[in-house]
């Protein structure tokens, strides 16, 4: 158990097994950088290199999953990265049925996938990372 890798430590923890120490991770948002895949990936990689956490939690802007449906947001300076929603796609229950299927390789979804690919290539393979997925009921 001595000298577990970050991945071994996290996976053992999730299985309820004994570990050499409790896994540690902290995260934050990068307003502005979260609008561009390369900038967001660089910010996460630099944060991980500085603090050497056991996992990286990827923190895109809250509207990334619904932006391609026409949801509009803007940033007003909140230090935690919260964006203000100025246009929502779902305004009544029937709107859910009218949402078209999005191509995950294009638009904001594609941008976020590209960021994840950059993180996969830029982080040590032993550092697990997990993507924040916001609840569509709260952001659409």
What would you say this structure looks like, in words?
Helix 2 (37-51) packs parallel to helix 3. The mean pLDDT is 94. A hairpin with a 7-residue loop joins strand 2 (72-75) and strand 3. The chain is elongated and about 55 Å long. It is built from 4 helices and 4 strands; from the N terminus they run ααβββαβα. The protein has 140 residues and is of the alpha+beta class. The strands form 2 sheets. Strands 1-4 form a two-stranded parallel sheet. The chain has helices spanning 6-14, 37-51, 107-122, 136-139; strands at 56-58, 72-75, 83-87, 129-131.
Write the layout of secondary structure elements.
Layout: H1 6-14, H2 37-51, E1 56-58, E2 72-75, E3 83-87, H3 107-122, E4 129-131, H4 136-139
Parallel strand pairs: 1-4
Antiparallel strand pairs: 2-3
Helix pairs in contact: 2-3
CATH topology: TIM Barrel
Output the helix-strand order.
HHEEEHEH
Distance between the termini: 45 Å
Total helix count?
4
Tags for this model:
140 residues, alpha+beta, two-stranded parallel ribbon, 4 helices, 4 strands
């Amino acid at each position: 158990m001595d000298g577990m890798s970050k991945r071994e430590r996290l996976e053992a923890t999730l299985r309820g097994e004994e570990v050499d120490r409790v896994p540690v991770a902290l995260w934050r948002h990068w307003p502005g950088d979260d609008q561009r895949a390369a900038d967001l990936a660089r910010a996460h990689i630099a944060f991980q290199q500085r603090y050497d956490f056991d996992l990286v939690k990827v923190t895109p802007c809250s509207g990334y999953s619904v932006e391609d449906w026409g949801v509009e947001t803007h940033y007003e300076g909140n230090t935690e990265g919260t964006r203000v929603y100025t246009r929502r796609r779902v305004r009544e229950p029937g709107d859910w049925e009218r949402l078209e299927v999005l191509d995950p390789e294009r638009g904001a979804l594609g941008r976020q996938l590209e960021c994840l690919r950059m993180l996969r290539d830029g982080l040590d393979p032993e550092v697990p990372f997990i993507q924040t997925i916001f609840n569509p009921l709260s952001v659409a």
